[in-house]
Every structure is written in structure tokens, then in C-alpha cells.
Amino acid sequence: MLYVLEDAINGILIGSIYGLTAMGLTVIFGVLKVINFAHGSMLMVGMYVAYWAVTLSGIHPYLALVIVAPVMYLFGYYLQDIIIKPIFKAEKDVREPITVIIVTTGVWYVLDNLSLLVFGPQYRSLQDNPLRGKMFEFGGMMLSVPKFWGFVIALVTAAGVYFFFQKTRMGRAIRATSLDRESASLMGINQYRIYNVAFGIGAAISGIAGAVLVPFNNVYPSVGVLFDIKGFIIVVLGGLGSLWGALLGGIIVGLIESIGPQFMAATWTEAIVYALFLVVLFVKPSGLFGEKYDW
């Protein structure tokens, strides 16, 4: 029984990190109303930024967050401003322009292949990593230190983003634009600047997730694909546009992947995750924690 409890706690820890990786995706969807297929690639870019920040400067892996978050915010802001905004302007009468999805798919391939060209196919991990394999004992259970801090960072990030959307002037402008972009424009809100900011926030969250993953996960050009797939499943489970839904959806996936192998072959846990994904799509397409409005 103790082993099951230990697996459950570890499942919550890794699941919260899954939720953090999906949170940026749900922020972008909540405002722009399009799925960002380059989300996993932005996570990969964030991991490389964190990896090189730590490798070149020798700072603690979590201190890299102060570098990764602003760099990824600017990356997302200008990616939206230069590449995606012209499409929104060309299709301004379309609520969910399909062309944007096609373009983000192209960005996905460009980023992955560019990183492959620049960094090569090698799997990289932090050298002299103070967190590698580090565990702490709690009630007779062994828990991963980097995953525990990942859980804390995921909660702090979710709370910070939620506070930003609820309590700040820019946050209220983003929420207004997500609900009705035409009415928001009539009230003097520059919807295209809001899109830039929202995309920047989504990219910054992806960067934070990447920095959290680097201490215990290898960095390589296609690493984003795995988290891209998980991210889509999680946001559907939790509810598109729901911050806390993304976090809880990630924990659900983490619990299934952690506890499942105690009772069945590990490959069956993936089947259960996909089956749950399909059931939610059929029974409650808005997601387990979806609401009538996005924010």
C-alpha cells in the first residue's frame, strides 16, 4: 500500500509539470481561439535556453528561470507579431482562422529542424547537476526533489497567471478580448497587441516548463513532440481555456502513468490515457473543468 501511495504522490508531482507544459497552450487558445501546434517546439526552445544558460554561466538550474521566462516571452511576442498577426488581419472576420493552425504547424517544423541543424541530434543533459537523482524521504517514501520543486513552480505559475488575468488592467483586457474581440476593439482595446501579449505569456509559461524539465530530462530537438501530444490531451481533459483545468488534467495523466504500472503493463497506461481522452471528447467536449466562458 505504501508503494501505491508513493507512486500516487510522484504521479501528482510529475502530473503538475505536465499541467504546466499544457498551461501555455491553454492560455493561447483562450485568447486567440486557435490551437498552437508549435507549442511543443516552444517548450523545446525553452529547454535549450535553460540548458545553455546553466551550462555557460554555471548558475543553479532554477535560477535560469529569470533568464528563460523573459526570453521566451519576447520570442512568443514577436513570433505572433511578425508571423501570425498578418493572418489575423487578413482573416479578421473569421473567429477561428484555420490558416493560423497551418502556420503554427509550419513553425513547429521550422523550429525543430533549425534546432537539429544548429545543435545536432545529440541528447544533452546538465553536467554537474546538483539535482540529478536527488531524493528526499517523507514518511518512508522516496520522492524526487526536482519534481517536487517542479510541482511548487507549477502552482506558483498558475496562481501568478490567474492573478494577472483577474486583477490587472492588461489581464482584464485580455479576458475581454477572449470573450468578444469585436466589442473589445470598440472599447479601445488593441486586439492585435493583446494577441501578442497572450502569445508571449503562453511562450513564457512553456519556457518555465522547459526550465523545470531540464534538471531531470534530456534536451534534444524533437523533445517537444512528446509534450505536445500530452499537452493536447491535457487541455482537452481539463477544458480548453481553463488554467486550473490544465493543471488538474496534467495531474490526472500523471496519476494514471504512475499508478497504472503497479497493476498492468506500462503500455496499457498510455491506452487508458487515450481512452479517457476519447471518452471526455464524446461525453463532455468542454472538458472536465470547462466552463461556459474561457476565463
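That was protein one. Protein two is written in the same sequence-then-structure order:
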Amino acid sequence: MVVEFSGIVPALAVPFKGHEVDFELLSEHLDRLLRSGVDGFFVVATTGLGHAMGIKSKLELVRFVAENRRTAFMIVNTASIEFEEVKELVRESERVGADAIASNVMYYFKVDDEGALKFFTKVASLTELPFFVYNIPQTTGYNIHPRLLRVLKRELKNLVGVKDSSANILQIADLATIDGLKVFNGADEISLPALIAGASGCVSALSNVVPELFVGMYRAYREGDTSRAVELYRNILEISTGVKDLQLNISIYGALSVLYNREFTLMEVFRPLSRSEKEIVEKAIRNYLERRLSSN
């Protein structure tokens, strides 16, 4: 079956008990996202602490999401600084029926254009699954610019898209002109402008928290209801602005703890929210929930 890679795709947040995935709460989280109408999942993601997980936990997570995603598509981020681990995750993604794999460049070790080209070529060659380049320069230290993506699109037969988290709207617009390349914006604060610039959808951290806003915005925009899309986008911006000074994972996990009325816990190696941070997150989420309740 050919998958139409588009729409709202949460960069799946994953709750933990110590260093083990809390699959009970994750099941509840997946169910809520699916009922909200999300189109897919980006798994082993930055938001879900994928780069900090061991291979055993990564494989368990991929299997679990594959079994519980219903009709949503699934893109598995296979990035690792250990290439044998990349290969193992690619093989498991194929086995469980993932729809695509993705990878950022090698992190920790600095790369240049030639190194990035070689790395992506090697990863893509491991499989016939559709392949997404994952650009997140704020953590890898390297921006995968449109010029390199044009080269990769010509040379890699299974390259179908890019998840770009640069928050650079001009870069998003340029990427969207590459023929046959699906562009997913990964920066929540430019979610609607990115769609206008030609993006196929959003791989979003904040959509873990307010999936209904992202799904509603996307559908309104696609249906030509610009005023409704702008209204929902402003709600997204207000929530994002309310927690913008906090670290990404801390803000998302804190907000999910408020929503589920139980701790949506970070891996134990990460610090928890401080009392003041909890107050910031609670205020942003409760303000939204109160407005939503009053409008119904």
C-alpha cells in the first residue's frame, strides 16, 4: 500500500518508569492522539528521548507502536552514533511493518556536506522502505540545506521526504520546491506558515499535548477555511509562548502530566520540573482547557 505522507504527525512523547518505557500510560497516550485524528507517528524521536534510549527500549517501543497505531502511518527515526544499532533498528522497522525510516546526521561527531551525503546514502541503502532525512541543526550542529537535499533526491531512490526542524521558513519554502519531496515542518511556532509555504504537514512536539488544535488547523487550511486555521494557529502560539522559556522535553512532559493528572515521567537521568516550571506549564494548559470548556 502506498502511504500518503502528509498531515499531523506527533513526534511521539514517551513516558518512563526509571529507564523503562511506561507502556500502560503510553497506550493511553496513543489512544488519545488517535481519537484526535492524527495522521501518523514519528517514533524514537527527540521529544520522546529516543536518542537517550538503549537499543532494547527502542525496539520494544517500535513494536508497541506498530501494534497500536491502527490506521496511522509510522516513521521510525533510526539515528544513532553506533551504526550497528542503526542497522538493527532498520531491520526491526521492516519486520513490524513501519511505513518509513528516518535519520539525522551523526551527532557528537561533526560532519560536513560530504560526510552527511555519505552517511545518508549508507542508511538509505539498508532498506527499500521510504526514507526521510531528519534535519535538526540545533542538536546536531549541522544544517542540511536544500542544496544537499537536491543532490540526495537525485541519488537516493527511496528518499521521499525531510523533517525540517530548523524553524527557518525560507528554508521550508525552498525545500518544498524539490520535486517529489515531502516536507514536514518540525517547529511548532511556524506550523501554519510552513503549510502556506508548501509543507505537507507537521511533525510536532506540541501536538502530543493539543492534537485537536493541530488537526483542526491542518484540516481547516486544506479545506480553504483560512480564518479558522489562523484562529487555531493563534491558540497553538499562545500555548507555545506560555512555555517557550522551558526546555522542550520538560515543557511537553509537564503539560502531559497536567492533562493526564498523573506524572508523564521523563527518563530518570533527566531532571524533573521545578515548582516554578510546573506553575508555568499548568497555567498555560489550564488556561487553554478553560477556554475550550467555555466555548463548548
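The longest helix spans residues 275-295. Keep this in mind for the problem set.
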